[in-house]
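Subject: complex prediction, re-run

Hi both,

The earlier run crashed halfway through, so I resubmitted it with identical inputs.
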Amino acid sequence: MSLPHPTTEQITLANVLVALGDPTRLAIVAQLARDEATPMRCGQFLDLGSKTNISYHVAKLREAGVIYTEVSGTSRLISLRREDLDKLFPGLLDSIIASAAEIALPIALED
Amino acid sequence: MSLPHPTTEQITLANVLVALGDPTRLAIVAQLARDEATPMRCGQFLDLGSKTNISYHVAKLREAGVIYTEVSGTSRLISLRREDLDKLFPGLLDSIIASAAEIALPIALED
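This time it finished cleanly. Structure:
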């Protein structure tokens, strides 16, 4: 089974920006960016929201072309579409990840 | 008379991305970026939509902190909040403007 993803040509700047315009989805992308070579499971984002909530946000990111979701047995392996996004919108993902990481940092330090 | 604007501290990455996640608003920002030293009037964007439509989109950009709108008599002078955005989200505005300009270019060449 595989989930639908937009092709590279179907990814639009407006859709990517709307998908990223949410604090939970920015946090998911920032976490994926920490180790891009290793896909993550939905269950690893449960500090950000309920399972239903995370599934919703992950679907929004997939439908906009920001992430790949690969179904592997009962798991879903999530990774950034780094190559596509860098090709289509040079510098965009890096600037957003850098800003999202800076925003998340003070909250983590309060623990 | 002056219109409400968020302070620099009130501007959030999520709000900026949502505001920019619209083709008309991306086109407005791309046009403002062509000559940032010269504020533009709503009337200069009428190739992008009706007066009501442009007023709506300009208000969305102002409320998110992407642009300044200065009331001057019966006109509204619009400019990018370049300094605030570059300070808060380094590289973001430039990457979005570059991508938005590239998207707009092929359409213009078809004329």
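Residues 92-109 of chain B form the longest helix (18 residues).

- K.
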